[in-house]
Design brief:
Layout (H helix, E strand, L loop, with lengths): L4 E4 L5 E5 L1 H7 L2 E10 L5 E6 L10 E2 L2 E4 L6 H13 L7 E11 L5 E12 L11 E7 L1 H10 L6 H10 L3
Parallel strand pairs: 3-8
Antiparallel strand pairs: 1-2, 1-3, 3-4, 3-6, 4-5, 4-9, 7-8
Length: about 170
């Protein structure tokens, strides 16, 4: 059974919950927690989404991200996703900012989301989830920006928006 995610209004006030499928099919605004993990060299950890995923398979994405489950706040979701996707726990997360986004997926469905972005520093081991992630790498921010401009379809739109709004503002 699918976990319910938090539904919000246009001001990010909680108004209910439901499944991801309901949110996507009915246009419910929902919450996403996104994370940028940097190492001591200033490189950003990014991951390639598994080809087995229904939504945006094979695209590069930020360090970790995921829906805010019913009963969770953004921070709890960020901590959970970082541990689930990258095996990283116990790091301090710093809030970077929040933005609203209409993201169009490969099927043409519009996903309405409030995104809360966090950053963390980590130089230790990364044990990524092989079910959700096919590859990880540490990248120089300027190289990443160039790659995003040259081949935007290699990246998720949420990642591009997060980078443009909060790393290069």
């Amino acid at each position: 059974m699918s976990k319910n995610i938090t539904f919000v209004d246009e001001n990010d006030n909680i108004i209910g919950s439901g499944t991801k499928k309901q949110a996507w099919e009915n246009g419910n605004i929902h919450r996403i927690a996104r994370l940028f993990v940097f190492n001591s060299k200033g490189e950003l950890l990014i991951h390639k989404r598994s080809d087995k995923l229904k939504n945006l398979p094979g695209r590069w994405d930020q360090s970790a991200s995921g829906h805010v489950d019913e009963g969770e706040d953004y921070l709890a979701a960020a901590e959970r996703e970082l541990e689930e996707e990258m095996g990283i726990k116990g790091v301090e997360l710093e809030e970077v900012g929040k933005f609203y986004q209409d993201e169009v997926d490969d099927d043409g469905k519009i996903k309405k989301r409030f995104n809360m972005l966090y950053k963390a520093r980590h130089d230790g081991e990364v044990n990524f989830s092989k079910g959700e992630v096919s590859e990880i790498k540490w990248v120089n921010i300027n190289d990443l920006r160039r790659q995003m401009k040259e081949k935007p379809k290699d990246f998720t739109q949420g990642f591009i928006d997060s980078v443009e709004l909060h790393l290069f503002k």
